[in-house]
Amino acid sequence: MANPIEELLKDYPVTMDIPVLWGDMDAFGHVNNLVYLKWFESARVAYFDLFKGMSVDTSTSIGPILGHTDCRYKIPLEHPDTITVGARVTEIAEDRFSIHHRVVSHQHQKVAAEGSGLIVCVDYKTGKKTSIPPSWLEIIANQEKVA
Question: Quick one: which H or E segment has residue 48?
């Protein structure tokens, strides 16, 4: 029988387990909404690590910037629990790509939240958008198994 968490994240090439901390909860007794965005960020940075940190390339001054993020909360989470958060690229344009995030609760064995982030490729010398470097596109294609 397949692991339900693995099944729910089978399309996500980057996943990471994160414990739900006591300090993640708010006065209402469930995980604060901003914590989910931090979990998304952790998964996004793990995806960026495939690009050697996807930091600003000193030779070209090209790097990523988060242009937009959103989150849809499905079930409330509480301490103690562990979540697995996944990241995958879902859309690519000339100067941007979208990353979809999914948070799965180990305790509940179901999706707790989903959301996305729009990553824009920027030339940090000029402050203007620029095309995604071919090396990034190759890494994304290899991770997502797309042509």
Answer: helix 33-48
